[in-house]
Amino acid sequence: MTNQTQGHTPGPWRASECMSTCNVNILETGKRDGVVIGILNRSTAVENRANARLIAAAPELLEALKELLSYEDVIHHSANKAILKAKQVLAKAEGKG
Question: How many CB atoms lie within 10 A of CB 26?
């Protein structure tokens, strides 16, 4: 089920390897069998697992980024470039950039 305010399936997500192929599924956690979010099938199983871990972490990374940006007014000015990049990535993730 898609979250109407976020526009994506709410996390947490987890990576689950398929036994019959080198595919790796990204599943919504908290469901009996999980809802497949995505299927990875790259050239190697190692690359599939690495990509799956990154994708599965996406909802939590998004929340961490939002929380970090909520402290923007108290972060030292030397971090301005990083703050700008974080805002751009957040906008991209939310479909605003």
Answer: 23
Which burial class, exposed, middle or buried, applies to 24 when counting CB atoms under 10 A from its CB (0-12, 13-18, 19+)?
buried
Segment 18-29 shows an average pLDDT of 63
d(CA 97, CA 95): 6
Structure tokens, 74: 């108290």
| b/e per residue 31-61 (b: at least 16 CB within 10 A) | eeeeeebeebeeeeeeebbebbeebbbbbee
Q: pLDDT class for 1, splitting at 50, 70, 90?
A: very low
